[in-house]
């Protein structure tokens, strides 16, 4: 009966088979020993379910990757070829940058060749020399295509074709390039892949004698024409080829910062100030929560009531600080920047100082400062500073000029006194940019007395390099009187500079 049950529940079983199974079950229920089939009740529900649902479907889903090529071309015309002879081995004439597939490329033509010092078979200069031609990958845009990321870095693959045009219409162009059956060339912009290059081309592209022969038509009116074609290999689809997400085109910098909004507390919520600082007879209302959070020195004053006149009035007298200096310091406490905008774009300021004459970085810094000023004016015009559109809550014009050296020096002293390390660093940076003969010694003494280590090193180097001139200034006499220990450090710096100069001369 087990065989009968198997046949009945097998796919395609007939009604007769089902009837036999029913009879077998009836017999088993009657208690006949031969008809007891223990496995039948457990088999039947599964079999019936299979009959009702039909054949089970296989796994669903499909993925697809597609590899194509993106083509591009560039033509580079070189006039005045005769003037390029003798430019030197390995010295290229570059085309303008051009973009293909979201990457930036440039053609490099070497009139005097590009001989490899590591190639023993490279032609000697005495032989009929070759002109070389290469293409280099020099950068990428916001959405580069065809980038392959591997354990060795990011590379692109492409087929390149270089053509020296026959300008006599004879059709005898010289073309060299990679064939499809040879596989695409791997190029790495950052040289991250040791098996990839950031350029591709031919050291022996054309012999100079062939190029310069008047019968060949390659050189016409002292001009040559080079055409370049590229097929960039691009694969789409698959988990490893997801397109790079572009940042949204939102000018976040146009919106007010935390400093912009906190600064309005002194105008919109002036009636909620709970402490007053008195400096040179001038009173500056403030919020104890803000100044205590920003400065441990002020926090200690407020906690102990030190130097507070008639404690119930909440007036703290500050000595040895000028009122304009304290006004700028208070602005920093609320806005994290100085009246001239210093501190709003710290990364741009740092890049500008590190640029050492880089016009692009200097322009970026100037642009950042201009945008900061415009943002302050716009925020004020929206009512962010109580309607005072021409000035900040501290009475400082929105377009205030840069702080002069004397003001910055006073701010440095105040920053050190009130434990404002960021303000001290900002003042150090500004003073490092303005070190000159007349102020170098005074600034050096100031740095020594106010824990400005970076500024101290900058001044030591400057004074050591201009010692004769600095020693004639009044500031140098002040430095000797106030910080006599600096003389030994200055002599040590002079000796180090002399040793470095001697070593460089020997090298």
Describe this structure in words.
The protein has 507 residues and is of the alpha+beta class. Helix content is 40%, strand content 20%. It is built from 18 helices and 15 strands. The strands form 3 sheets. Strands 1, 6, 7, 8, 9 and 11 form a 6-stranded antiparallel sheet that branches. Strands 2, 3, 4, 5 and 10 form a 5-stranded antiparallel sheet that branches. Strands 13-12-15-14 form a 4-stranded mixed sheet. The longest helix has 26 residues, at 359-384. It is elongated. It starts with a helix and ends with a helix. Residues 18-53, 347-372 and 382-401 have low confidence and may be disordered.
What's the short version?
The protein is α+β, with helices and mostly antiparallel strands and 507 residues long. It has helices at 2-9, 15-29, 40-53, 208-212, 258-263, 265-268, 288-294, 296-304, 323-335, 346-355, 359-384, 405-417, 421-432, 437-449, 453-465, 467-470, 474-482, 486-506; strands at residues 66-79, 93-94, 98-100, 103-110, 130-140, 148-150, 153-164, 174-177, 185-187, 199-207, 223-236, 275-279, 282-286, 308-309, 315-318.
